[in-house]
């Protein structure tokens, strides 16, 4: 019953997450995740970037999730569930962005919500997309990106890191050269 859960990123969701992280670099991007769940899998079909008037390169606006009005409307239109949110941790000066949840992130993640964190840093060289540990990482242009997924379990309120699967990223690596 409590088998390992993984997070499956569909091609469209992967591209949106990647492009919105790159677009606002070196600021943070925020957005919502829509999809569905099966027994041992959370399938992310769409990632909807939040068009904020104000973007800041830090954790200073922890409550952006409440401002995402699109999340109330979209699931009704596309027959998908709201799964949670994504946001990026960009490099700031010489400090590298991390794919770990920050303390404010841990505080704001809702029960039963998925949170995808994108670490985006200046790439020293280009590398292929691969799965390592529970994360997905690789380069696009001059950016190095690591994507990690977290889920706050309802039964005990623990935040778990789940493996991210994205055959699109791995299989179509040459796309990003
Ligand atoms: Zn964060």
How would you characterize the overall build of this protein?
With 177 residues, the chain is α/β, with parallel strands linked by helices. It has one domain: Cytidine Deaminase, domain 2, CATH 3.40.140. The protein has helices at 11-24, 70-78, 103-108, 167-171; strands at 6-9, 30-38, 41-49, 81-90, 114-122, 130-132, 135-140, 143-152, 159-165. The radius of gyration is 15 Å and the shape is globular. The model has no long low-confidence stretch (mean pLDDT 87). Residues 59, 87, 89, 102, 105, 117 line the site of zinc ion. Zinc ion (ZN) binds next to strand 4.
Summarize the structure.
The protein is of the alpha/beta class and 177 residues long. It has helices at 11-24, 70-78, 103-108, 167-171, and strands at 6-9, 30-38, 41-49, 81-90, 114-122, 130-132, 135-140, 143-152, 159-165.
Q: How would the blueprint of this fold be written?
A:
Layout lengths: L5 E4 L1 H14 L5 E9 L2 E9 L20 H9 L2 E10 L12 H6 L5 E9 L7 E3 L2 E6 L2 E10 L6 E7 L1 H5 L6
Parallel strand pairs: 1-3, 1-9, 4-5
Antiparallel strand pairs: 2-3, 2-4, 5-8, 6-7, 7-8, 8-9
The structure holds zinc ion (ZN).
Q: Strand portion, in percent?
A: 35-45%
Number of domains: 1
Instruction: State the share of residues found in helices, binned by percent.
Output: 10-25%
Q: Can you tell me the CATH superfamily?
A: Cytidine Deaminase, domain 2
What structural category characterises the helix and strand content?
A: alpha/beta
Main sheet specs: 7 strands, mixed, barrel
**What is the count of helical runs?**
4
How would you sum up the global shape?
A: globular
Give the ordered list of helices and strands.
EHEEHEHEEEEEH
| Cα distance spanning the termini | 41 Å
What's the total count of β strands?
9
Our Rg estimate from Cα atoms comes to: 15 Å
Determine and state the CATH class: Alpha Beta
Provide the low-confidence segments as ranges: none
Which ligands, by name, code or SMILES, are bound? zinc ion
CATH level-two architecture: 3-Layer(aba) Sandwich
What name is given to the CATH topology? Cytidine Deaminase, domain 2
The average pLDDT is 87
What is the topology, as strand order, of the major beta sheet?
1-3-2-4-5-8-9
